[in-house]
Amino acid sequence: MVPVYHFLWLGAFLFCAGLMVIITKRNAIMVLLGIELMLNASNLNLVAFNQLHPAHLSGQMFALFVIIVAVCEAAVGLAIVLRVYQHYQTSVPDEVTDLKD
Amino acid sequence: MNFVTILFYFFEAVAALAALSLVLVRNVFYGALILVVCLLSLAAIYVLAFAEFVAVTQILIYAGGILVVIIFGVMLTAKIAGKPLVVKHTNVWGGTLACVALFTLLLYFLSSQKFFEDGKDKMQAADTAINTIGFGLMTEFVLPFEVAGILLLAALIGAAVIASSIKSRNV
């Protein structure tokens, strides 16, 4: 059968990979992809810890709500990226510096 | 080691490799496709972990919804049509240091803690999982369910308003 601890290790790896994507990529859409990866890592942990009470399924329920919030975040985030692109003609977050000193 | 375990290791390796190549890839469109691979293999892992409802939701929403939106975003923000959107890397050493440190820390804590008792460290099936989720969404979790509906509606209207190019006269 499937060992539970592998879920936690894979979740940790996916979270760190998502963080790496967010830090290193110079593109707003790539940053959004990294955020999706981190949310999926947390989902993996929720499904794994569902095993503490397998009959109650509250972990899986929480994972469903995390997916819903991820949808909202992706939709609003991409809309903001499009708007910023229309206004500044760039999708690089570092180049939007109007509020900088 | 039976067939299910081998399948689980295979999908685990696919997910990890896809995440690793998402770090390395420079083309945003390829990045989106690699993320599809990672999310689909995670859905397969959910099926093997007896979380069928989460797996189906994952495929429908992520592979069907979010990735289409992301690919539209890639198309709409490419400066010159026909030329791939290639990103540069920045903060490579700092990012690597932070991620390796975080990963080591997480592995240290995961190996020092014992979350599951000895008999329970394999995935167990809940017999009527989808049934329980259906009843739970309408009884115990009905308030978060409805709030999630309102949140989705607000987020989608907000996204449509933000992304529409009609100029508002008041702003």
Automatic annotation (TrEMBL), chain A:
Pfam families: Oxidored_q2. The chain crosses the membrane at residues 6-23, 30-49, 61-82. It is an enzyme of class 7 (translocase). Its EC number is 7.1.1.-. It is found in: Cell membrane; Membrane. It catalyses: a quinone + NADH + 5 H(+)(in) = a quinol + NAD(+) + 4 H(+)(out). Keywords: Cell membrane, Membrane, NAD, Oxidoreductase, Quinone, Translocase, Transmembrane, Transmembrane helix, Transport. It is a multi-pass membrane protein. One of its GO terms (molecular function) is NADH dehydrogenase (quinone) (non-electrogenic) activity. It comes from the Bacteria. Belongs to the complex I subunit 4L family. NDH-1 is composed of 14 different subunits. Subunits NuoA, H, J, K, L, M, N constitute the membrane sector of the complex. NDH-1 shuttles electrons from NADH, via FMN and iron-sulfur (Fe-S) centers, to quinones in the respiratory chain. The immediate electron acceptor for the enzyme in this species is believed to be a menaquinone. Couples the redox reaction to proton translocation (for every two electrons transferred, four hydrogen ions are translocated across the cytoplasmic membrane), and thus conserves the redox energy in a proton gradient. This is NADH-quinone oxidoreductase subunit K. It comes from Ohtaekwangia kribbensis.
UniProtKB/TrEMBL annotation, chain B:
It catalyses: a quinone + NADH + 5 H(+)(in) = a quinol + NAD(+) + 4 H(+)(out). Keywords: Cell membrane, Membrane, NAD, Quinone, Transmembrane, Transmembrane helix. It is an enzyme of class 7 (translocase). This is NADH-quinone oxidoreductase subunit J. The keyword Transmembrane applies. Gene3D superfamilies: NADH-ubiquinone/plastoquinone oxidoreductase chain 6, subunit NuoJ. InterPro entries: NADH_UbQ/plastoQ_OxRdtase_su6, Nuo/plastoQ_OxRdtase_6_NuoJ. The chain crosses the membrane at residues 6-25, 32-53, 59-78, 90-110, 147-166. Its EC number is 7.1.1.-. Belongs to the complex I subunit 6 family. The keyword Cell membrane applies. It comes from the Bacteria. It is found in: Cell membrane. It is a multi-pass membrane protein. NDH-1 shuttles electrons from NADH, via FMN and iron-sulfur (Fe-S) centers, to quinones in the respiratory chain. Couples the redox reaction to proton translocation (for every two electrons transferred, four hydrogen ions are translocated across the cytoplasmic membrane), and thus conserves the redox energy in a proton gradient.
